[in-house]
Amino acid sequence: MVLPLASGEFAPLAPSGRPAFWAVTGRLGGVSRGPFDQANLADHVGDSLAAVMENRASLAAVVDLSSEHLVHMAPVHGSSHAFVDSGGQAGEVDALITTSDTLGLVALGADCATVGIHAWGPESGVAIAAVHCGWKGLCADVLGATLAQLRSLGATKFQAVIGPAICGGCYKVEEERIHTVTESCAPDVARAALAFAGGIDVREGLFVALTVAGIPTQIAGGCTFENSEELFSYRRNNVTGRQGLVIRIGGASA
Ligand SMILES: [Zn+2]
């Protein structure tokens, strides 16, 4: 059973709204072996497919769904999204959006950040999004693009949760990347992401971007690189699994 590292319920954003339930997983609680030990959710990292499928079934159960109602994406570090109304693989995008209350949107990472968004608008009702975002995604503003898409659907109120990610102290990069972040991101986002000299902290950048947009945001889980017991880190282990964030419309017991 994939055990959530953290989970919570977003309260309805309006009297006519509905809650949304989210969970963030780490590496504990699944059936994967070796470097994917235990709760790897990715099918592209070399892990046994049977183990991944079993872990995904456990993840689905966490949000009271079956595996075929989970929606996955193949991130490409861009800013495009897929609007989905059925389960399965949504393709090469970095964000998923739905208004369906029978789907669980999944974002995976192993240093990259994951974001779950709960949105509501008077005309559109409730929508949710799951976002995958590393430093390239921060520069491509996948978060801003996803929020813009939710607003174009009619959403006016939001709340968000950010999953585990590598911190700026552990994610030292070459000068060119620092420069790209400075050039590409809004000044306050870049300042937050680059607060630790020589490193990029994507999660701090996302947190500031959400806060500046007036969106209440919580952070779940710590630095992936520092917590080898509970979290997968690509920078630490290279061959490793992926943890996940899942979000669905409905209460904790749906
Ligand atoms: Zn760290």
Using DSSP, what is the number of strands? 12
Strand order of the largest sheet: 1-2-12-7-3-5
Question: From the 3D coordinates, which CATH architecture would you assign?
Answer: 4-Layer Sandwich
Unreliably modeled segments: none
Named CATH topology: CNF1/YfiH-like putative cysteine hydrolases
Helix content: 10-25%
Q: What's the end-to-end separation, in Å? A: 19 Å
| Number of domain modules | 1
Question: Layout of helices and strands, plus pairs?
Answer:
Elements lengths: L3 E7 L9 E6 L23 H14 L7 E3 L8 E3 L4 E2 L5 E4 L5 E6 L3 E9 L3 E9 L1 H6 L1 H11 L4 E6 L12 H10 L2 H7 L8 H11 L4 E3 L14 H4 L5 E7 L5
Parallel strand pairs: 3-5, 3-7, 4-6, 10-11
Antiparallel strand pairs: 1-2, 2-12, 6-9, 7-12, 8-9, 8-10
Bound molecules: zinc ion.
The site of zinc ion has 7 residues, from loops.
